[in-house]
Amino acid sequence: MIEPVRPIAIQDIEGARQRIAGTVLRTPLVRLDLGPSGPDIRLKLENLQPTNAYKIRGAANAVACLSDEQRARGVWTISAGNAGQAVAYAARVAGIPCAVVAIETAPQTKLDRMKALGATIVPVSYEQAWKAAEAHAFAGMDGTFVHPFDNHDFIAGHGTMGLEILEDAPDVRTVIAAIGGGGLITGVGSAIKAVKPDVRVLGSEPETAAPYALSLREGGPRKFPDWQASFVDGAGGQSVTQRMWDRMTPAVDGAVTVSLGEVREAMRLLADKARVIAEGAGALALAAALSGRAGEGSFVCIVSGGNIDLAKFSELVAR
Length: 319
Description:
Elements: H1 10-20, E1 29-31, E2 41-45, H2 55-64, H3 68-72, E3 75-79, H4 82-94, E4 98-103, H5 108-116, E5 120-124, H6 126-135, E6 144-145, H7 152-168, E7 174-178, H8 183-195, E8 200-206, H9 211-218, H10 242-248, E9 254-258, H11 260-274, H12 280-290, E10 299-303, H13 310-318
Parallel strand pairs: 2-10, 3-4, 3-6, 4-5, 7-8, 7-10, 8-9
Antiparallel strand pairs: 1-2
Helix pairs in contact: 1-2, 1-7, 2-4, 2-7, 4-5, 7-8, 11-12, 11-13
């Protein structure tokens, strides 16, 4: 049975922080030097996590919260790569089996790392994976399902990042995060709104897959009619579900849609100015901050991940 949606309380996030402390890094917050006339931007470097993406926060907390009976069954998840790596990593630490319903077009780097972490891979199309995520089920899968974004404990784990941001950047005015399924921004936003409700929390989506911006414009959860796959494979879902709309609404102040060209430029800038390798989704937040459509003031941009084939990265930033 699917648990009802409930608010991500600050106590949930603080509890998660204690549970995942031995598994997850407290990642650095570094200033992006864009010169004296450039905007005030700091980068939350989640690409430095053990799985090179923020999902390890949620996965470690979700697995730690499982009962002995649930663990005995093993776990499975659905992923384009980062969630699969995170759940596989957490499962390996816990000594339990893991399977991943993996999007078959995911970068080979991500598929290889899931396998290296001991996960059994079940390849499916993007549409099949998204339907399974909406249904919280996939035929033939045994074990305990750990949803990659619509899971209370998973989201609470992501909220620990929000606490770190406020501690390291108490003067921040706007925090920007990529939106895929919505778990990252819900967790971070829930923490920030509980501690400093005046700080703005904005999402960033690629123009080829921007269902949350569409949902905001139309006042409710919507499917994105012209969804297209792109190199921004770690974000940009096909739709916003009712459950995630209910979760995001109190925690998010708005969304910025960016072009793929703006994402590529943000990837290049991160490499050039900060020596940071970000995948497409990892550069979405910076692309939004640089677009001028996120307002002014001090920004924290979450670099959500760096799992990208180096040849593909080189090709994208060289354009």
